[in-house]
Design goal:
Oligomer: heterodimer
Number of helices of chain A: 5
Structural class of chain A: alpha+beta
CATH architecture of one domain in chain A: Orthogonal Bundle
CATH topology of one domain in chain A: Arc Repressor Mutant, subunit A
CATH class of chain B: Alpha Beta
Number of strands of chain B: 8
Order of helices and strands of chain A: HHEHHEEH
CATH superfamily of one domain in chain A: Winged helix-like DNA-binding domain superfamily/Winged helix DNA-binding domain
Strand order of the largest sheet of chain B: 1-2-8-7-6-5-4-3
CATH topology of chain B: Alpha-D-Glucose-1,6-Bisphosphate, Chain A, domain 4
Structural class of chain B: alpha+beta
Strand content of chain A: 5-15%
Helix content of chain B: 10-25%
Helix content of chain A: 55-70%
Largest sheet of chain A: 3 strands, antiparallel
Number of domains of chain B: 1
CATH class of one domain in chain A: Mainly Alpha
Chain lengths: 107, 155
């Protein structure tokens, strides 16, 4: 199985991106993560499982709690990761272009 | 789909370049960066403050449907030359990415086309690489359907 493709599939989902954003700065329990979403708890658990399988998230046991955190060290070379970053700017600039093509100065 | 936006990030460097050509006159391209109402639409963030002048500050914020803040960024404008250049700092709050220095250069290619070149300088190589590996951490492409939303409103 191609891990890199899996990673991109993993981050293609908006909820999973939101989860990664949440844990980017701090480790969180599954419960704390789920409380940020309207989605049913089992759905969030499924997302956490996919992200863990793709090695984007790591689990650490602290007492009875399992904390999820970003697994940065397992990331691939920068070059492999430019495409989503490029896509983000491309989407933004496409939007800018579309808006300005329809733009009529008000004043 | 053609790839209009180019990103150059050399290994082991703490900066990157983003280049894009637009089917827009340079003044409209520039306006999209200094008019808060327009900026909000394509950045997908609310503009809390935008002082488009030297020493001016700006602040952007994005909330989810429940009103929870998912992204907040701020910075200071160091140089602003209409239709030519913006130099500013950019800091995503509550993230480990530090303060970036951003240089935007706007240039006309013809009466109807223009080019934007962004030079983004990070504090460290590690911060740049970490950000590149987590583009979604920018929190800005989280709502793809918003693109449709905005565009359909304009029609």
């Amino acid at each position: 199985m191609n891990l890199r493709r899996d990673v991109f599939q993993a981050i293609a989902d908006p909820t999973r991106r939101a989860i990664l954003l949440l844990v980017a700065t701090q480790s969180m329990t599954a419960g704390a993560i789920a409380s940020n979403f309207d989605t049913a708890r089992p759905t969030v658990s499924k997302h956490l499982q996919i992200l863990t399988e793709c090695e984007l998230l790591e689990q650490t046991q602290t007492g009875r709690e399992i904390y999820y955190h970003i697994n940065a060290k397992n990331m691939k070379e920068v070059a492999d990761f430019i495409e989503p970053f490029r896509k983000l700017w491309d989407d933004r600039f496409n939007k800018l272009e579309n808006i300005m093509k329809k733009y009529k100065p008000k004043k | 789909m053609e790839r209009k936006t180019k990103v150059d990030a050399e290994n082991s460097k703490h900066d990157l370049h983003i280049t894009r050509e637009f089917d827009l006159p340079v003044d409209l391209l520039f306006r999209a960066h200094v008019d808060p109402e327009i900026l909000e639409q394509w950045m997908g963030s609310k503009v809390l403050k935008l002082e488009t002048k030297k020493h001016g500050g700006y602040q952007l914020e994005k909330k989810d449907e429940n009103g929870k803040v998912v992204f907040r960024a701020n910075g200071v404008i160091h140089e602003l030359v209409p239709d030519k250049k913006i130099t500013r700092t950019f800091e995503m709050e509550n993230t480990p990415f530090g303060v970036q220095l951003e240089v935007y250069e706007f240039e006309p290619l013809s009466n109807d086309t223009s080019r934007l070149r962004m030079h983004v300088i990070y504090e460290t190589i590690e911060q740049r690489d970490q950000l590149l590996k987590m583009p979604f951490a920018a929190g800005l492409n989280m709502a793809h359907n918003r693109i449709q939303e905005i565009l359909s409103k304009l029609k």
